[in-house]
């Protein structure tokens, strides 16, 4: 397949490296003045990977979009609405768009596929690629399982057949609402896990995983999805990589926030948490973990007080 990656952060660049490795023709697009893109283009390396000569780097968006059968977008979730009209300016009728990114739009509560479908032709098939794993592990040959989901069954099966390897086993998603909400919400739970680490309360991560999954399952069901999706790879299955890994930006953000330290990298869970609180109110679903994380981020309560109230003081039935 001719595949274009729009975005060259740690995920976008890894996906380009991976798809080239398994035999696809890959183009990676980035902004002409972005330091990350310039480093990749000039050295064909980043801090994890070396990119073969078979990969094309370009800062020409029209060239990147026009040459692709499949367009994979990997950028900040909150930047998607402003970016996708630039892509939609070109003919997308025969294209397939896959979002390898996790988030919910803060201002509207929209899922990311909903945003894309506002701008692209009805013939353009849109899907998501989510699930556990870090580029740092994949680049060392450590395998994992991921999910591809879409409203289009033929798209899911085509891409899973084309993208599977010994490094990544793909499962077929069958609940786009649950897959997107679950994938985004695990980052909020990751922030809470980091807060527990920062408070030396890591032993409570078991309770966090149990209650966090149940909380997000309630929201997915209220939004019209299958609550069991919260227990799949998009959410619970991604907890190891998000709640425990040293590479998790969201876990690290929560840990540093508690310790009064500044985290300068992107933690998508911060904006996702705001969006989840909005969705909880809209669908009248109780989201105590999301609400607590949001209150701590906003400075309305301390992590110690908020998390203690959640896990150590209140008396509640488990189910």
Q: The biggest beta sheet, please?
A: 8 strands, mixed
Percent in helix: 40-55%
| Poorly predicted segments | none
Number of helices: 14
Strand content: 5-15%
Overall mean confidence score, pLDDT? 95
Coarse structural class: alpha/beta
Distance between the termini: 47 Å
Element-by-element helix/strand order: EHEHEHEHEHEHEHEHHHHHHH
> How many beta-strand segments?
8
The global form is globular
Rg calculated over all Cα atoms? 19 Å
Lateral strand order in the biggest sheet: 3-2-1-4-5-6-7-8
Name the features:
alpha/beta, 8-stranded mixed beta sheet, globular, 319 residues
Explain how this protein is built.
By secondary structure, the protein is an alpha/beta fold. It is 48% helix and 12% strand. It has 14 helices and eight strands. The chain has helices spanning 10-21, 35-43, 61-66, 80-88, 112-119, 135-138, 153-163, 176-198, 205-222, 239-244, 249-258, 269-283, 288-297, 303-313, and strands at residues 2-6, 25-29, 56-58, 70-73, 96-99, 125-130, 144-150, 168-172. The protein has an eight-stranded mixed β-sheet with strand order 3-2-1-4-5-6-7-8, with helices on both faces. Helix 1 links the parallel strand 1 (2-6) and strand 2 (25-29). Helix 4 packs parallel to helix 5, helix 8 (176-198) packs antiparallel against helix 9 and helix 12 crosses helix 13. It is globular and about 60 Å long. The protein starts with a strand and ends in a 6-residue tail after the last helix. 50% of the residues are buried. The mean pLDDT is 95.
